[in-house]
Amino acid sequence: MDPDSAPMPPDQRHRRTHRPGGDHAFSRISWLLRSFPDAFSNVLTIRRGGDPMGKKARRIALTGAVVATLGAGFASAAPAHADDAHYYILIGGTCDGKASVYRPEWLRGGIARVVDYPAGAAGAPNCDQTPMDQSVAIGHDRGRQVVQDAYHENPNAEFTVVGYSQGAIVANMVLNDIADDQLGVDKTRFSAKLFADPMQPPGPAGTGISATLPPGTGLPSPFGGYVSFGAGRPDFNGVRSIRYCIQTDGICDFDPIQAAGGYFAQHWCYQWPRPTDQRSIMGDTIADGVYTNTSVRLGKQDCWGGPVHP
């Protein structure tokens, strides 16, 4: 797949739809604007040519500003033991520890296994208050267990690890363990779909916000836990994978000038349905069987019409 191509034309629109359990997008945006005014004012100052903060400090401020992801309802499917069974290890983003962002029909008959973890964002409204670095560590441990349990339930099945935003960080760590033969599973049966990955390594599709700073840089616990986790692997040593990043999404395509605006405009567009056909990026790609072992750059999406719920 051409890294500059997208599963759908970039001019197709997305819209928000209300689903039970969703948080208010604009309440989080308002909180971020109130909590991180310096970060956004610095972005505007940079655009005018000023530089009141050093590059590293500015990135740290923006790291703290872009932490919320949204979710909706999902229930795990019953176990199956057929050799053609396909398990999906689902890891939600910030404030979505139940992985409710993923809709059952997107799995196309696959079996859901949810990594239930805090998905924390200290200080964010309507969100678990576990500092993010601790949240990711808990998610890593639980993700390892979910992978092992699913594999031992049916070692002849196929398994896809799916992560979005903070969940993609957790997925990177779990995939590293699978790639390095640390979990006692057959890695040739595993694959990965990562959306808006903060650890996206530098490349034509963009560089993740976490990949722009050395690991550990930022505000560690107990000061929010908003730290860099470094860059992810370009590939996972035999585990088929693909990363999806919408252009200017400040989480996976970080730029000090565009990060904040791009985050608000694009970061939720992976999940919302297009008004033209009621399909979504995640719905089109999670179970499509396409893996390039690269990052795919998606064109900008217009998903700001409709209700304020994801």
Could you please describe the fold and organization of this structure?
The longest helix is centred in the middle third of the chain and has 22 residues, at 132-153. This protein has helices at 25-35, 37-48, 55-65, 132-153, 166-179, 259-266, 281-285; strands at residues 13-15, 86-91, 111-114, 158-164, 190-195, 218-219, 226-227, 240-246, 295-298, 302-305. It contains seven helices and ten strands. It has 310 residues and is of the alpha/beta class. The chain has a single domain (13-305), classed as Rossmann fold (3-Layer(aba) Sandwich). The relative contact order is 0.20.
Brief characterization of the structure:
It contains 7 helices and 10 strands.
Provide the fold topology.
Layout: E1 13-15, H1 25-35, H2 37-48, H3 55-65, E2 86-91, E3 111-114, H4 132-153, E4 158-164, H5 166-179, E5 190-195, E6 218-219, E7 226-227, E8 240-246, H6 259-266, H7 281-285, E9 295-298, E10 302-305
Parallel strand pairs: 1-10, 2-3, 2-4, 4-5, 5-8, 8-9
Antiparallel strand pairs: 6-7
